[in-house]
Design a protein that fits this description.
This protein is mainly beta. It contains one helix and eleven strands, in the order βββββββββαββ. Strands 2, 4, 5, 6, 9, 10 and 11 form a seven-stranded mixed beta sheet that branches. The chain has a four-stranded antiparallel beta sheet with strand order 1-3-8-7, with no helix packed on it. A hairpin with a 6-residue loop joins β5 and β6. The protein starts with a strand and ends with a strand.
Length: 126
């Protein structure tokens, strides 16, 4: 079992920045592909970004490419999502996800990861 706890959400003005963190406990963190998804009210869950176990391979959705950056620190069992140039359409609940059996972060995009955090709200005002 893996437990994931997100933090760092909040209210920010358009053009601002936030950094989300997700800390894992349980099984060895460094063996998992990690990622971020989001879900806005009335919309389907959307893949945001994924990162390989080593951190050398990352994959970002087109909607956030160039603005968001995923990273991880295996020594701290933590994955991050740095969000810059935020837009009102980025408003959503952001979820951290983990899976030990995905080969690449690209594979996470269309998967249903095994482990999920409880979510953290990000609200971007115009």
């Amino acid at each position: 079992q893996v437990q994931l706890v997100e933090s760092g959400g909040g209210l920010v003005q358009a053009g601002g920045s936030l950094r989300l963190s997700c800390t894992a406990s349980g099984r060895p963190f460094s063996t998992y592909v990690m990622g971020w998804f989001r879900q806005a009210p009335g919309k389907e869950r959307e893949f945001v970004a994924g990162i390989s176990w080593s951190g050398t391979n990352t994959y970002h959705a087109d909607s956030v490419k160039g603005r968001f950056t995923i990273s991880r620190d295996n020594a701290k069992n933590t994955v991050y999502l740095e969000m810059n140039s935020l837009k009102p359409e980025d408003t959503a609940v952001y979820y951290c996800a983990a899976d030990a059996f995905l080969g690449t972060p690209q594979a996470m995009r269309r998967s249903n990861p095994a482990y999920w955090g409880q979510g953290t709200q990000v609200t971007v005002s115009s």
